[in-house]
Amino acid sequence: MLAGELRLGGARVVVVEKLARPTGQSRGLGFTARAMEVFDQRGLLPRFGTLEKSPMGHFGGVQFDYTVLEDAHFGARGVPQSQTEAVLEDWATELGADVRRGWELAKLAEDGDGVEIVAATPEGEQRLRGAYLVGCDGGQSVVRQAAGFDFPGLPATRRMYLADVTGCDIRPRFLGERLENGMVMAAPLAPGVDRIIVCEHGTPAGDRPQAVEFDEVADAWERITGESLAGGGADWVSSFTDATRQVSAYRKGRVLLAGDAAHVHLPAGGQGLSTGVQDAANLGWKLAAVVRGAAPDDLLDSYHDERHPVGARLLMNTRAQGMVFLGGAETDPVRQVFGELMELTEVRRRLAGVVSHLDITYDLGPGTHALLGRRLPPRPLHLADGTRTTTSALLHQARGVLLDLTDDTTLRAAAAPWSDRVTTVTATPDHYGVFAGATALLVRPDGHVAWAAVGENTQHRPTAEGPASGVSAADGPVSGPAVVVGPTATGVNTQGPVPGVAAGGARGSDAGADAGGDGWAFADGPAGTEALVEALHRWFGTPEVA
After folding, report:
1. Which of 168, 171, 187, 188 is closest to 231 using CA atoms?
2. pTM for the whole thing?
């Protein structure tokens, strides 16, 4: 996912991937509502085929309807992780990412100008140098360890098994079943194939997953359920723990971490893969802009500032679910209180937002509109030329978007110097709903609203002379490379070439420069123009001066 984001942003990228080929295993079987929106923002959803959204989900094993919150659902269900990986790898390679399979990182060294890695490859030792290195290499991240990141947290208290078993007559236990000796879950994947999870009370645990055989899983299943899996087998088996850890910083100089390399936790609610995808969507456009010289290096600090709190909240909610669902008789009072609280609509709304990831809010500056700092939800729009589009489609090329809802020429003129990196769109929604009270929105490439003009908006259609739905720069050079190390994330179709970048591009200019700095001056306009220019500087750097 990060490789695709970097390519859309105009950076060269090499993915160093230890596996010579995909394993085909699928520990994850879907993704959250917000991850689904992120894929939609890049035009990737059609590559997954028909997706089934599940309105019913759970928190700590207590089932409820997630649609109690607008746009929420329990996520896309039944999507094998192997398919998600394949979709993203195709996307990233189509965009021009250089994926080098069978390359295993052995060493790294950072200096003031870049990062050099040494990789073991089938052709022998190879060296690569990049401007930045991002570890996307999982819970046992070599990058994290080699770069010396602090990884505090709680050690594992229990070990669990995950397996796709064959030839076993297992009744479904979709939400899991708590029994005297532990908890088991079971769900059919295909005729004769069942996914099972086994959590036996008192199982010794270490921080690292351990190799496991089918017989060990079958014995634990029988001790808990009294049912025998004799005569069956498994396509694959693995173990995992409830170890809960998060790096204290997502960035250390020119080395950054994303996904499980930055945070490990109990896999409750299928949130791990989805959080990693969102890490990549937050980091990719920022890192690409810095590598191109279109934004200062300190833009990357916002990656930690925004995503570390999200990771901490992820660890909090998965620990809470583990306590409620996996504990023994000693946690029965907690389950009873929790069940009573779940009868309250506001509690269900809060928990639906937590697990769907739709409630994530970043501190993106002063303002009063409810969308500020939150994701722009998927909604249909009418463009100036009478055609229709969606808020998600506006983000397919991972550019910023100024969404002008009232045909305001002054705001469009203020944003014009950033036209090589921000698309200006004049449009009106079918229904104002979430847009109520906003006259314009500045949306970052990750879909979060960075600025909102507050005022009276009325239902109208923009005039024909409004700007076209896209403004693109002439093709320019791409810079880099940035090196991504870790499991290959696959990606999707780009409609056309990677957006060009303006030639030149001074590095080191202040992203928060005053509106009138760097040769740009604007006539007084409606309230919010200066704030818009400040937000454009902060998130998209200083524009080129003609």
Report:
1. 168
2. 0.85
